[in-house]
Amino acid sequence: MSEHEQYNEKKQDPSLKLFVVLTKAQRAIADLVKDDIKRYGLNPTEFGVLELLYHQGAQPLQKIGEKILLASGSITYVVDKLEKKEYLERVPCPKDRRITYASITEKGEELLHGIFPDHWEQIKQITGGLTEEEKRDAAELLKKLGRYADQQKN
């Protein structure tokens, strides 16, 4: 096969186009979500930590990074900032002194109660370019793609 034929074959493969489109869409959506979260005096990482604690309850500090895809060194910094704002507190594990939990405070819960309705509406607007069915289909396809990509790491 000539170089020209190989190039044409690669041009027809939608893999690179999918990657570029996914990357651009993710960036555009993330920028809009980040702007929305900033309105509440939080950055996306702080919001992610509070959202995790709000929905799943107290979490060991070591596990938060895994769950919101954040480097462990950054977790301490983010937790410190949220603790200073009184949105969360550190709670020592009674069974293992090496483990400390982060727990959302009442003030943190009140903040999220106030944020969520508007934030949800913003997410609906941001994803408004798709119908409900297209959103479900896209979510399933992207989940499938993500699981496959995760398997490639092993």
TrEMBL record:
This is MarR family transcriptional regulator. SMART domains: HTH_MARR. The keyword rRNA processing does not apply. The lineage of its organism: Bacteria, Bacillati, Bacillota, Bacilli, Bacillales. One of its GO terms (biological process) is response to stress. InterPro entries: HTH_MarR-typ, MarR/SlyA-like, Tscrpt_reg_MarR-type_CS, WH-like_DNA-bd_sf, WH_DNA-bd_sf. Residues 15-147 form the HTH marR-type domain. It comes from the Bacteria. Transmembrane segments: none annotated. Coiled coil: none annotated. Keywords: DNA-binding, Transcription, Transcription regulation. It holds the Pfam family MarR. GO terms for molecular function: DNA binding; DNA-binding transcription factor activity.
